[in-house]
């Protein structure tokens, strides 16, 4: 049993499977260490109906459908919202600490697009707390083995047995994965009856992103190369309020949406409120609306950023809820109680990905997927804030139950060749890889950003094809390195985002094309 990725989706799958089947050997791969994942960078919290006297599943469902702009799968939304509460309760039982009021009740935050306060959080580092909880829980199961510094190169299918596989080939099967051991520099073959893809996001295709440097879309790229079904990659969520910094850190520091939920107000550099011009919900409108509004205000005024005004907020409460945000701002000479915080939109979340069914199965037999790398139907054209961690928990649970029930009926395929590195040489110029990565970020940031046009998308496709050809030549002629493989994956992701954007001749959710500003009545996925 193989799980690729050690964030909330991967570890919750491993834990649930270990509970169900103590006889199974479960291997979890992470390309860095168990403390580093997209999960650990999540600030705001996890959305779950908690105060049933004021909130309800139906309200959370409606908020999610509204944010998704017509492309959510109502069945999946209902599953995640209704099962989510129990999954969060389990997380608390495993040791997760969420902030409470003096009376012992949970302090429930509110974020953009939510009608009620339902965000459980731990200060402004909720993801870190959830990752800590899962890491500790995993240690209690002897049949879970976590391998750090293992980079998955490709999932193994009939293609590696010499069969010609196309997107029309029926019954493509996954037999495990080829994995690069960063310590030994060798490529291992890990065979498994079932494999789960939990590799997180794709943010490193852009210059400005709140995603960690490991967010290179590896899982989506691997499944695409294996001829699996991918959809809705054009829906890239830009978080409206990353901290504007001249130093261009990677990743950008996130000013959590929970700060606006706490009462902060978006303003121009001149101190004027502007969000009411775009949405009656003001600064708490869904992320796609707020990000486009900020982008538009910056273009109108020529300003390099907009501002988030926290000066009117309760100081003690702010420090209690957002200590890390406060310290980060102070380290840059910004006092949130005196100065407005300069903010800009930055790439934050991929709403498309590997198509999964309600159980987490993909179009490739024996391959499951969960978390941000998927297109489960929950997020549609725009993710509702703090629904992502919830999705990872719910689908981790569902995948584990199905594998536990099915795995005894599966055969382990052993007729798999080792990785063939014959004819390759050591790369002579790493600068070619790093420069291509920079070019990729420039292309995507300038041509496939928050606002798109047909001309920009065409130019991006042309430039990406050149990068693809150059990188494939290096890949086939030199020995494998994680940097080269990440670049190759990012080029694939950039192509899928751009191709999806070019195919969608409308503006919906996170995809806005000024050449096609109308939103059509038909609702469909963009398959790739």
Walk me through what this model shows.
- The chain has helices at residues 8-20, 57-67, 74-93, 126-138, 218-225, 257-261, 287-301, 315-321, 323-331, 388-406, 431-447, 454-477, 482-503; strands at residues 2-4, 26-30, 46-47, 119-120, 144-148, 150-156, 176-181, 186-191, 195-197, 230-231, 236-243, 265-267, 306-309, 341-350, 353-355, 367-369, 374-375.
- 52% of the residues are buried.
- Helix content is 35%, strand content 14%.
- The protein has three domains: 2-234 and 351-409, FAD/NAD(P)-binding domain (3-Layer(bba) Sandwich); 243-347, Flavocytochrome C3, Chain A, domain 1, CATH 3.90.700; 431-503, Methane Monooxygenase Hydroxylase, Chain G, domain 1.
- The mean pLDDT is 94.
- The chain has 528 residues and is of the alpha/beta class.
- A five-stranded parallel beta sheet has the order 5-2-1-9-16, with helices on one face. Strands 11-14-13-12 form a four-stranded antiparallel beta sheet, with helices on one face.
- Helix 5 crosses helix 13 (482-503) and helix 12 runs antiparallel to helix 13 (482-503).
Helix content: 25-40%
Summed over residues and divided by their number, the pLDDT gives a mean of 94
CATH architecture of the largest domain: 3-Layer(bba) Sandwich
For the termini, the CA-CA separation is 28 Å
Quaternary arrangement of the chains shown?
single chain
Shape: globular
Strand percentage: 5-15%
Topology as a string of helices (H) and strands (E): EHEEHHEHEEEEEHEEHEHEHHEEEEHHHH
Q: From the 3D structure, determine the CATH topology of the largest domain.
A: FAD/NAD(P)-binding domain
Radius of gyration: 22 Å
Q: Please describe the biggest sheet, giving its number of strands, its sense, and whether it closes into a barrel.
A: 5 strands, parallel
Structural class comes to: alpha/beta
CATH superfamily of the largest domain: FAD/NAD(P)-binding domain
Work out the number of β strands: 17
Domain count, please report it: 3
- The largest beta-sheet arranges its strands as 5-2-1-9-16
Number of helices: 13
């Amino acid at each position: 049993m193989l799980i690729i990725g050690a964030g909330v989706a991967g570890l919750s799958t491993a834990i649930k499977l270990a509970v169900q089947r103590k006889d199974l050997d479960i291997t979890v791969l992470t390309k860095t260490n168990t403390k580093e994942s997209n999960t650990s960078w999540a600030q705001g919290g996890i959305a779950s109906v908690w105060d049933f006297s004021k909130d309800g599943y139906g309200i959370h469902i409606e908020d999610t459908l509204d944010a998704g702009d017509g492309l959510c799968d109502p069945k999946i939304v209902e599953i995640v919202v209704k099962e989510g509460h129990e999954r969060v309760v389990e997380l608390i039982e495993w040791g997760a600490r969420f902030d409470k009021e003096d009376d012992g009740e949970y302090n429930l935050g509110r974020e953009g697009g939510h009608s009620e306060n339902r965000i459980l959080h731990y200060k402004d580092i909720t993801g870190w707390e959830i990752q800590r909880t899962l890491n500790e829980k995993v240690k209690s199961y002897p049949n879970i083995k976590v391998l750090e510094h293992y980079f998955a190169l490709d999932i193994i299918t009939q293609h590696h047995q010499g069969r010609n596989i196309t997107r029309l080939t029926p019954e493509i099967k996954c037999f495990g994965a080829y994995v690069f051991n960063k310590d030994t520099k060798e490529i291992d073959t890990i065979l498994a009856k079932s494999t789960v893809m939990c590799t997180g996001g794709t943010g490193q295709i852009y210059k400005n992103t709140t995603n960690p440097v490991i967010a290179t879309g590896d899982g989506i790229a691997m499944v695409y190369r294996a001829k699996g079904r991918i959809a809705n990659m054009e829906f890239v969520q830009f978080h409206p309020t990353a901290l504007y910094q001249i130093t261009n850190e990677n990743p950008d520091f996130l000013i959590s949406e929970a700060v606006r939920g706490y009462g902060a107000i978006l303003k121009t550099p001149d101190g004027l409120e502007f969000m009411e011009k775009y949405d009656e919900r003001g600064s708490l409108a869904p992320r796609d609306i707020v990000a486009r509004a900020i982008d538009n205000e910056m273009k109108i005024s020529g300003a390099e950023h907009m501002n988030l005004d926290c000066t009117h907020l309760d100081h003690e409460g702010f420090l209690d809820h957002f200590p890390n945000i406060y310290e980060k701002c102070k380290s840059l000479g910004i006092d949130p109680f005196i100065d407005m915080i300069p903010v800009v939109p930055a790439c934050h979340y991929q709403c498309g990905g590997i198509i999964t069914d309600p159980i987490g199965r993909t179009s490739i037999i024996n391959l499951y997927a969960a978390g941000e790398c998927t297109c489960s139907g929950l997020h549609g054209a725009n993710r509702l804030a703090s629904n992502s961690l919830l999705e990872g928990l719910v689908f981790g649970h569902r995948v584990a139950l199905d594998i536990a029930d099915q795995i005894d009926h599966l055969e382990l395929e052993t007729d798999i060749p080792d990785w063939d590195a014959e004819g390759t040489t050591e790369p002579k110029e790493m600068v070619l890889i790093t420069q291509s990565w920079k070019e990729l970020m420039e292309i995507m940031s300038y041509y496939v950003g928050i606002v798109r046009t047909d001309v920009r998308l065409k130019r991006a496709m042309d430039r990406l094809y050149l990068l693809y050809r150059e990188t494939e030549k290096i890949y086939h002629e030199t020995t494998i390195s994680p940097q080269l493989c990440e670049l190759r994956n990012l080029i694939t992701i950039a192509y899928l985002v751009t191709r999806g954007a070019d195919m969608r001749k409308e503006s919906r959710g996170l995809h806005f094309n000024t050449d096609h500003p109308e939103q059509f009545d038909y609702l469909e996925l963009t398959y790739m």
